[in-house]
Design a protein that fits this description.
alpha+beta, three-stranded mixed sheet, 3 strands
Length: about 120
């Protein structure tokens, strides 16, 4: 007998909730002034909810390494605050990874624009 899916799977709902809560915690809970303006883009959660990879970007690229250090230092605090907001059997261990997809997309877009500007227009 095949199960029918009703909306999102539980894992997707948990992932979305973790992403929303972490975005709020990073915005309001990080008191370290060295951290840049952080945007949480995506969260991937393992099937057993033991690990969550948080993909983020930083507005100021110069602060990328410092922001990575700040997030690694605050990982335990963010996890404990997450546990207060989300009721799960096990709160996942957080792993932060810089999301380079936006930079690559902007670079590709700039290359396409450059090629389009160099290409002669034929009637």
């Amino acid at each position: 007998m095949k199960k029918t899916q009703r909306g999102y799977a539980r894992q997707d709902r948990v992932k979305e909730q973790i992403m929303r809560e972490l975005a709020e915690l990073v915005r309001t809970g990080l008191k370290d002034p060295r951290a840049g303006f952080i945007t949480v883009n995506e969260v991937e959660v393992t099937r057993d909810y033991s690990h969550a990879t948080v993909f983020y970007t930083v507005l100021n690229q110069d602060a990328r390494e410092i922001t990575e250090e700040v997030l690694e230092h605050a990982r335990g605090h963010l996890r404990s605050e997450l546990a207060k907001r989300i009721k799960l059997f096990k709160i996942p261990e957080l792993h932060f990874k810089y999301d380079e997809s936006l930079e690559r997309g902007m670079n590709l877009s700039a290359l396409i624009d450059q090629v389009a500007a160099e290409k002669p227009v034929e009637d």
